[in-house]
């Protein structure tokens, strides 16, 4: 298992255990992480699983694809260099301790 921490806009943290090989989005949905809506179910067509990768993790996870970059232009909050769609991040053991921030416009 790989531990991932999701940080809400108010600073509240939720640590979840993810199975290697699943997407970060699947781990978030399975653990009821607020703010990860994943309306398209991970098909890279909705941008409702937008997260910001914590600065200490930027560059330590695989880079985003061109399609993901294009889809990030449709997010509810301005994308940054740290923006990712968590449906496109596949969990592996090198990500143990990964920290992701939920955009403030995705709270419910």
Automatic annotation (TrEMBL):
The 2Fe-2S ferredoxin-type domain covers 2-106
Q: Does the keyword S-adenosyl-L-methionine apply?
A: no
> What keywords tag this UniProt record?
2Fe-2S, Iron, Iron-sulfur, Metal-binding
InterPro entries recorded for this chain? Answer: 2Fe-2S_ferredoxin-like_sf, 2Fe-2S_ferredoxin-type, Adrenodoxin-like, Beta-grasp_dom_sf
Kindly give the CDD domains that the UniProt entry links to this protein: fer2
Taxonomy, superkingdom:
Bacteria
Which family does the record assign? Belongs to the adrenodoxin/putidaredoxin family.
Which PANTHER family does the record associate with it?
FERREDOXIN-2, MITOCHONDRIAL, FERREDOXIN/ADRENODOXIN
Q: What is this protein called?
A: Ferredoxin-6
Organism field = Cupriavidus numazuensis
Q: What is the lineage of its organism?
A: Bacteria, Pseudomonadati, Pseudomonadota, Betaproteobacteria, Burkholderiales
């Amino acid at each position: 298992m790989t531990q991932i921490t999701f940080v809400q806009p108010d600073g509240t943290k939720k640590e979840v255990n993810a199975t290697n090989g699943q997407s970060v989005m699947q781990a978030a949905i399975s653990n009821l992480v607020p703010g990860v809506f994943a309306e398209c179910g991970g098909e890279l067509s909705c941008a409702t699983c937008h997260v910001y990768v914590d600065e200490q993790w930027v560059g330590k996870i695989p880079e985003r694809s061109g399609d993901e970059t294009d889809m990030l232009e449709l997010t509810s909050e301005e994308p940054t260099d740290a923006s990712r769609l968590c449906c496109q991040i596949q969990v592996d053991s090198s990500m143990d301790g990964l920290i992701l921030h939920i955009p403030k416009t995705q709270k419910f």
